[in-house]
Design a protein that fits this description.
The structure is a homodimer. Chain A has 7 helices and 5 strands, in the order ααβααβαβαβαβ. Chain A has helices at 5-17, 32-43, 62-80, 87-92, 123-144, 157-163, 189-192, and strands spanning 54-58, 103-109, 148-152, 171-179, 204-206. In chain A, 46% of the residues are buried.
Chain lengths: 214, 214
């Protein structure tokens, strides 16, 4: 059945108003049926050769959440040390909402199952792309449920993998903070804080990459 | 402004009915304003540290499209040779719609701009994940416009990069066939043809990867 122009416009508003959130309402919850709908949206994402390489580990243990928080803080400091004169500005930014978010889900790339279909030449890339598509589905689903989501990538996958006892070959790729938020940023937080602006350049070229394009 | 339950249900229908399409209506077109909306949805996707690493190259040159088609056919044969006793079954499957689709967009990961924010530990992975999120936005946008999209990954990125004259460090990651379709598959094509079924396993674990989980 076709989608209507009204449904189309609603989807485009969803895309435009999705944000990478780092501020959450402390003490809030996500109802189990809502969490289930988010995970179903992730499961319905495409995966190359139907390998379905994405798993989520839901953190319900408070001590474990605190360990993950401490690790992200340490990684944030390590990142700050690379920032040179922007170090102080960087440390002003919130980069995670791990303690406050109602739910913390770690997205893990499963060990390679040997799927060749569609990934003979790009095996690692296509597995990871499948995981990212699942997260983007989940992200939009959270927004349409009026929940925030933040993809935290300030961590060492080896350390987080050890904490979550993932098997050899599996790699954590995202810590997803999910839950109610006080309000959604009117524009991306990095833009709002003046850290960086969206690029003003063409997104699409015809037939070849122009010789002078970045 | 909050999304309503009606909007939410419409979005979940969109997620459920999005398909990886390989059959397109020959001779059809995508209106310029529709293509523009699809690209805007891709641009509004998240990107780590706002690096926005995704570019699209739109193939309007018929000879170039034919060269890309020939390359994909050769790669399909190379994949077939790895399939052992499933070789013939594999060759029965359609893996692309390059000649028939109204539009062919090649998604390219731009050369690394050196962004450290959110990718000190996972630089390649987070750039590629950003590209995949942009494609997933575009994919859902196509479906809500009642257009099909197929992500073709049967190619050598070096060969396609040379054909499109991408600069050093840039890597084509997807050939996206986009356009009107006769109809949408009722379920994923690989499932419909009996190539592979969706896995019947939990998607989400609590606190740790279970010792016996795949």
């Amino acid at each position: 059945m076709d989608f209507t122009p009204t449904e189309r416009d609603s989807f485009y508003r969803l895309v435009a108003e999705r944000r990478d959130m780092r501020h959450f309402t402390p003490g809030a919850q996500v109802a189990p049926e809502v969490l289930q709908r988010l995970l179903t949206a992730a499961r319905q994402a495409p995966s190359v050769g139907m390998m379905e390489p994405t798993r989520f580990i839901r953190i319900t243990n408070a001590a474990l959440r605190e360990q993950l928080y401490a690790h992200v803080q340490a990684e944030r400091q390590r990142t700050a040390e690379t920032m040179g004169e922007r170090r102080e500005a960087f440390l002003q930014l919130r980069v995670e909402g791990i303690r406050e978010a109602a739910e913390l889900l770690v997205a893990v790339l499963a060990p390679d199952d040997g799927t060749v279909f569609g990934r003979r030449t790009l095996p690692q890339e296509m597995a990871l792309a499948s995981l990212a598509c699942a997260i983007q589905n989940l992200w939009l689903a959270a927004r349409v449920e009026n929940l925030g989501l933040g993809w935290v990538s300030f961590f060492d996958p080896q350390v987080v993998g050890d904490l979550l006892r993932v098997p050899a070959g599996a790699r954590p790729m995202a810590m997803l903070c999910v839950g109610p938020v006080p309000d959604f940023y009117s524009k991306p937080m990095l833009e709002k804080t003046g850290w960086r602006q969206r690029a003003d350049r063409p997104l699409c070229y015809d037939n070849a990459w122009p010789a002078d394009a970045p």
